[in-house]
Predict the 3D structure of the following.
Amino acid sequence: MAEAVIVARQFDDAEQQRRASDLGMWVFLATEILFFGGLFVAYTATRLHDPQAFATASRLTNVTLGSINTGVLLTSSLTMALAVRATKLGLRRASIGFLCATAALGIAFLGIKFTEYVRDWHERLVPVLNFAHVGPHAGGVETFFYLYFFTTGLHAIHLIIGIATVAVVATMAARRRFSPDYFTPVELTGLYWHLVDVVWIFLYPLLYLVART
Amino acid sequence: MSSVPLPLPRSYLEEGFSLWSWLATIDHKRIAILYAISITLFFFAGGIAATLIRMELITPAGDLVSADTYNKLFTMHGVIMVWFFLIPSIPSTFGNFLVPLMIGARDLAFPRLNLASWYLYIAGGLFTVGALVAGGVDTGWTFYTPYSTMFSNTHVIAAVCGVFVVGFSSILTGMNFIVTIHKMRAPGMTWFRLPLFIWSMYATSIIFVLATPVLAMTLFLVAIERFAGVGVFDPALGGDPLLFQHLFWFYSHPAVYVMILPAMGVASEIITCYARKNIFAYRSMAFAVLAIAIVGFLVWGHHMFVSGQSIYAGMVFSILTFLVAIPSAIKVFNWTATLYKGSIRFDAPMLYLLGFVGLFTIGGMTGLFLASLALDVHLHDTYFVIAHFHYIMVGGSVMAFLGAVHYWWPKITGRLYPDRWARFAAITVFVGFNLTFFPQFLLGYLGMPRRYHEYPPEFQVLNVLSSAGASVLAAGYLLPLFYLLWSLRYGPRAGPNPWRATGLEWQTASPPPVTNFATIPVVTAPPYQYSPLEDARRG
Amino acid sequence: MISHPVPPARTYVLVWVALLALLLVTLGSAYVPLGRINAAINLAIAATKALLVVFFFMHLRSAHSMLRIAATAGFFWLAILVGLSLTDFAVRY
């Protein structure tokens, strides 16, 4: 039997608690949009300032790995959405399965990203550490890769936090903490996961597809 | 037949006396007090920096401190006063204490996030104090690049880390208030029955959640660029120092509305109570705070008129800046209309708020001079700007904060303070403030630049007046420390509603019990239902 | 028992297929020389994918209006930041 819903002292009932949690999470997601948004502005300004450099630099990214990774992350969003759905329907085994699949796909994303980073290192594209690209736009290319590592690194940190949270929530699900009446942690984790996916949806074309022609 | 009275529920102050009961509390009222003590400490730290600044400026020569030290002094004054005093001041103390009480709730939506926000504030404060102790920062509170990223030899990274961390304190507070106000109002408390203080907390919270993350990212970029030697603000690498200024001011302009909107909320509460009158045009007051919060996001480029940004951007930002003055002006008109034919009492809170209305008006109107592109060419980076923002931040926000301290002191502590001393302090602050900052308008117009520790001899008279005023102002700020702390022990105990004010917070005991209300009230009337009939009836 | 509308699994799978299709379109179109239009197409497709994720996976389609306002506010404010700073960047660069 699922545990009864615990309503915190400040709330009138479980429904108010759920609505408050949902609104709180969406407000937090809005802050994340603005947080990453600062980087998107920096990217926009710098690309407008030196479009040739960005074109040159973007061609040096690994579009194959980047595209596969995008597919991986989109699939993880599917499994996450299915996990939330299964929890709402009381399908405990399915929800645990989908949560584990989400985490696995997230780890796969990180693995592919790490492979990319290693290749970038070998091609001497890492600013400050071993950057050795020469040419008329070398400064701008280095700035592009600074933004590349900054944005994908920050994204990866958010993804790691997401994977950890999914693992915690999967454990809670295994301990029968959720039911059709109470699934807030799964729902909120899902919202966070999808936001991390949306950030990547925008990063992908801006980093990998600038001047492929 | 005698009846035995039921024992009163314990007040929130009596719910545990150990240090742990305070440091691990999730009661919004205790968290408000934790903040109140912390921001007071930072206020006096920032005040010490200001004292040294004004002492240096008594003479034209730079003879008290070196130029480098002076740069560190005005930087720390700005950093501390902006992020560790003004921005949290009313929201984190009075917002935290009053939002649940005013809407008829038992606590905020997320009490543990509330406590976390205070710990983030303290952590950020420690980083910043660390930077100070380790030798200071000399970039100005605005951390402009490329000086901050490439050339300053001071502890920039520690300072921006401190501000980064304290920003998350603001974000959590904003999240909490938005959700609480939306979801936890008492039965019958519709949006247009909310006290205007709640509207101002809501508008402030919108700014907290939407602006602060951009500051966080901007400071993160500064720290990395300084550390790594590569980044987006360096022209040699295809970057742009103005990118920093756009990102920085996107937050920092709305931040000044964070500083004034809560004060405006306080004004509506106190002016109605001490004029014994309903607020004039309630809905326009509510919409005005929303308009200020939203339009305030569209004007940041007015800090950059002479920075080298495109003249087209300058024109766009100039016209938008003129527009944002309109809702503020509407509020000033409405407070004035509220006073008209009111039954005015000049208790200390009212003295502070009457001062607020006048000084905010002067500060706001001088903002219009600065919004005009041509005038700003002459006035930018002079003492005119300093006088403008101090009139709003100090003449406005700080005076409203002090008014709020006095008004809600009986509710928070259960004690009454001696009103004569309080009125004397209020007048001292008003006189000291004007003597300090009015000469600075003249200095700026005459051409004295800001952030200079020495100046031509012909500016000395005005500078001496300003420094003399600062000493009076300091005395005015120190006075309340004494009589307010005295009142905690020796002041008469306050009843639930010593000012006969309207509002749910006055319907519960002073100080309130832990759960705020014995039973959640049901609201049937709009706020500020003051009238001579009511006053006569209550006697 | 509180009832919340639970879409069928098929809906999620269809959205996923659409997302992958859009991924292929954006990748493919990047190799077609269209000058400045390439960037516009990529951003438009990214926005469409984001909307699909937000409306279907994040349930904004059936959500309380306040949640939609919060979500819109985030993106709208970012648009303000980008748009107004472009009055400087797009003119000066």
Notes: Residues 353 and 400 of chain B are 6 Å apart (CA to CA). The longest helix of chain B spans residues 67-103. The interface with chain C takes residues 182, 206, 210, 214, 240, 242-243, 246, 250, 297-298, 300-301, 309-310, 312-313, 316-317 of chain B (CB under 8 Å). Chain B is about 70% helix and 0% strand.
